[in-house]
Design a protein that fits this description.
about 40% helix; 7 helices; single chain; four-stranded antiparallel sheet; alpha+beta; Multidrug-efflux Transporter Regulator, Chain: A, Domain 2; four-stranded mixed sheet
């Protein structure tokens, strides 16, 4: 992944005017919910987790029958990966882009616009970088991650969440009635 100029992230106000919310690191989403929010198949989700492209950061699968638990940020990355794939970027280039973002330690993905010419992925952190890239003929399409953030947030607001663990160390499911009944039966 190529990185355009070195403009500080604070200059991002031109691309993203809204402050985005803090993330809850103890609440996550099961695989089917992550698939629905990101617009991908379960097969893609499973493959990307097994190959290390996008692994669940709250709870990985630890064997047969265990449930992966994806964070909001994981689902955001899944949706960005899906958008890049839909525009024709190769999975190899996407892997390079995701690895670069991890290595660079980008704290707030919403501050980035990803641009591509269909072959390479470029990271822009200011409006000037986007303009320079387009004028140079390198940018064919762009993904404003802040906009994707809001889309994922809206979709997930209607879907069930799950807490990583309750006080007793038992997985607690917020939106699953069957799990609540089981938990009540074992507690009482």
């Amino acid at each position: 992944m190529e990185v355009a100029g070195g403009v500080p992230q604070r200059a991002q106000g031109l691309l993203f005017g809204d402050d985005l919310p803090d993330l809850d690191t103890t609440t996550g989403y099961r695989g089917p919910t992550a698939c629905r929010a990101a617009g991908i198949t379960y097969r893609q989700l499973d493959y990307w987790a097994r190959t290390g492209l996008v692994e669940p950061s709250i709870r990985p699968a630890t064997g047969s029958g265990t449930q992966r638990l994806y964070s909001f940020r994981d689902i955001l990355v899944l949706k960005v990966v899906k958008r890049l794939l839909d525009t024709g970027v190769s999975l190899q280039q996407i892997r390079t882009a995701v690895a670069h973002l991890r290595e660079r330690g980008v704290e707030d993905l919403a501050q980035i616009t990803l641009m591509s010419d269909g072959a390479s992925v470029y990271e822009c952190t200011s409006a000037d970088e986007v303009i320079d890239l387009v004028q140079g003929g390198q940018g064919v399409f762009g993904i404003a991650v802040g906009r994707v953030w809001r889309e994922v947030e809206g979709t997930l607001a209607e879907l069930p969440t799950e807490r990583a663990e309750d006080d007793a160390g038992v997985p607690a499911v917020a939106g699953d009635e069957l799990a609540r009944r089981r938990q009540a039966r074992t507690a009482g």
